[in-house]
Amino acid sequence: MARCKIITFMTLFLIFVCTVTNVDASELIFCNLTNSDGLSQTSINTIYQDSLDYIWIGTKNGLNKYNSFEFDIYNKGLSEKRNIIDGNITSIIEDLNNNLWVGTYDGISKINLKTDKITNYTTNNSMLSSNKIMDININNKGDIVIATTNGLNLYDFNNDNFIPLRDQSLNTSDTKILSVEFYNDNEIYMISKNYFFKYDMINKKYSVINNKTIDSILQNTTLTTMSIYEDFICLGTISDGIYIYNIKTGEIEQHYKLKISENNDNSYTVKSIYHDGTGIYVGSTNGLYVFEKNGVQKHFINNPFDESSLIDNNISYITRDGSGLLWIGTFSGISKVDYNLGISNYDDFTSEQNTKNNIIMGVYEDIDEKLWLGVYNHGISIWDRINNKVTQLNTKTDNKLNSDIIWDIKGNEKYIFATSSVGLNIINRETLEVQNLLNNKYCHTLYLDGDYLWIGTIGGFDIINLNDFSIKSINKLLKENNITISLGGAIFKDSQGIYWLGGANKDGLIEFNPKNNSVNIFKYNETENSISDNTILSIAEDSKGNLWFGTEGNLNKYDRLTKQFKSYSTEDGLSNNSIYSIIPRNDKIWISTNSGINCLEFKNDKIINVKKYLNNIEFSSNSYLKTKNGEYALGSNNGLYILKPNVIENNIISPKIHFNSIYVNGEKVDDLNNKSINYKENFITIDLFTNIYSDMQTVDFYYRINNDDWKLMSNNKLTLSNLADKKYTIDFVAKNFNGKHSERKTISFYVNPPFWRGKMAKFIYFALFFTMILYIILKIANLKNFITLKNRLLAKEMEEKNELLKKNIELEKRKNNYLINMSHELRTPLNVIGATQQLIVNLNKTGNISSNELARYMKISDNN
């Protein structure tokens, strides 16, 4: 099938010594996608990951662009940016110019990944030899070849057209090319149903590849698909499995059968082949076949009663994305699987058909590395992992258990112990004979301490001496210390010989020192340093002597010196607060919860990293252990999970973060970086995605604004509203399940202020202010000039008036002087006249005045 590049591998495995292992399909955890998840159609033809990390899925009715959160559909008759030539997609590949070439049954669509521009090609507007496209491939130079039902075509970049590659000397009438691949930049290998041939681009010649072996193969079967790795070509057939062809030697090196049955030597039809350094992955009409590098063959099929199995047995396409996730296209949708993640799931441990029996309530590994599993309502299943065989014990088998509901399982070299609600089962490990003890007593949890078996029961804890099976209890001691236990829960003996006994029904945590028979109980109270919950589900001690307690409400770490607890919850990053198991590993703490598995890393009592797995799985209490080879076996409501922590912790894939879309006020924008938006358009949604598509590998998104503190996003969308008018720089990072961070992704934009606070408004305000100031200044100047002129006029007028005043004063002076002089001149004669008149009057009264004297006096008066 189409591949973007020819992949080289360091190791070549030519000859497999195939050891068929009957592994149930549920060994792998398949996460499935169907039309209910948004696929346009469930019949998958091809799958491709582009350079932007989008997954493109070609179906029989539509092209799907997927980012692990949502689908974007392309099809015939849609809007301009989604309108492709046809909906039946056969092949997808990206060229060196970021164009996505989409082959269909009615032509080719070329989608520019940067602009979304779509260009369609058919025989009507180009020189394509046929509209029915079977495959498209590209070499390292960027040459594009198109396989059709009518031969091979080479894309002509200069003329934006196609050149049919014909060779009249090729003696074949079979022109329907099913698959095409470049071996190097100049050699193209291809197949039709009945021919295996190549094209030399330098000499422009075809040549049929044949020899006795190949001729024999093609006489007995027809070819269906091909795939190249290094110097080898995998050829798929319709009824004879796959063949490995050595390009250098020209010989068939190996043959793998996909046998229908032991009595039928024919093989299931091969429809897709993918290979890498770990093995060859073959999609057939009967599920997935994996031929591993170590020679082991595995077969995975659909289990209709297991949602985590392969979605359909009819596989049409297989590929692997950049993160290592295997994508399997089928007739019923897509199955994704982390083939080398280090997590396996098993859930078929009973002989009953058509029944999903996957609730595991107890797990124990015996000295032969067999796993004893409590399967809810089905007793015990003994899984011989080496021979892949399961032996069952229940109430219906010859060696009868006292109940089919088992709560816990522990054992030693001779006996296996299993609790139930009606007593204790004691099973001979070799003969499987069953004895019962503590009949009709609810037995819950177990802890094996040398020759003593501790049992959490109704009312407290019993202890069985395994030498004579005598029973004693510490319940009396507890009662003497006013401690009541309704149901015994988790039991653990620490490195100092102290027993820690948990109540399974909100009874608290008991510290029991057998040296002095002292007991102490811890219960939740409102103080910060108490235990966080009174139902104790799990207890463990790490390599530094720290004690850890899992409860129904948080994980607790106990400080022996201060006798205080520190609690960790979902607020610290845990996926759930109900802690069912605790397994310390080096400097990490692994826990199973009511919602997934977490691996915790601490620094100074603070969780600095949380790795999350299987977030949708509810695990069981009393159902965990570390196996002899370092694996973790964990029971759950979805079967048994086996983890390889060394594989998981060494997974170094880092997420890459991308912007999927940006919306401003509900309208999609192509780019917001370094742009400005109106203050009324400040409702912004930024949609993110990464290159991690595994449902089993959680990815958390974080953001910060203007170098503020980092904040965890609730999902892949960040919505901002009511933003103040200023510049915003938003940084994003993604952290995957293994604690790896992506490179920072940054977007900057500016929210424009309202007009009255904008630059133009400020300019206008400044201009108005300046104009007012200038107006005032001019007004003042004019007024000043007016005043100056007025003053001048007044001064002149004053001067004139002063001159006039002076003249008036002078005249007045002269007048006064004149009057004074006049007065003086008049006063003297008047005085003379008055005196004369008075004298005359007086003389006249006395009669002493004569007429002469009177005349003389009158004359004196007239003269004055």
Any overview of this molecule?
The protein has 5 helices and 68 strands. The N terminus is likely disordered. The N and C termini lie far apart (160 Å). The longest helix is centred in the last third of the chain and has 88 residues. By secondary structure, the protein is mainly beta. The radius of gyration is 51 Å and the shape is elongated. The strands form 17 sheets. Strands 1-28-27-26-25 form a 5-stranded mixed beta sheet, with no helix packed on it. It has a 5-stranded mixed beta sheet with strand order 62-68-67-64-65, with no helix packed on it. It has a 4-stranded antiparallel beta sheet with strand order 2-31-30-29, with no helix packed on it. A hairpin with a 4-residue loop joins β7 and β8. α4 packs antiparallel against α5.
Helix content: 10-25%
End-to-end separation: 160 Å
Spans of at least 5 consecutive residues whose pLDDT stays below 50 are 1-26
Number of helices: 5
Global geometry: elongated
Query: How confident overall, as mean pLDDT?
Result: 88
- Could you say which structural class the secondary elements and strand pairing correspond to? mainly beta
What can be said about the biggest beta sheet?
A: 5 strands, mixed
Write out key terms for the chains shown.
864 residues, mainly beta, five-stranded mixed sheet, 68 strands, 42% strand, disordered N terminus
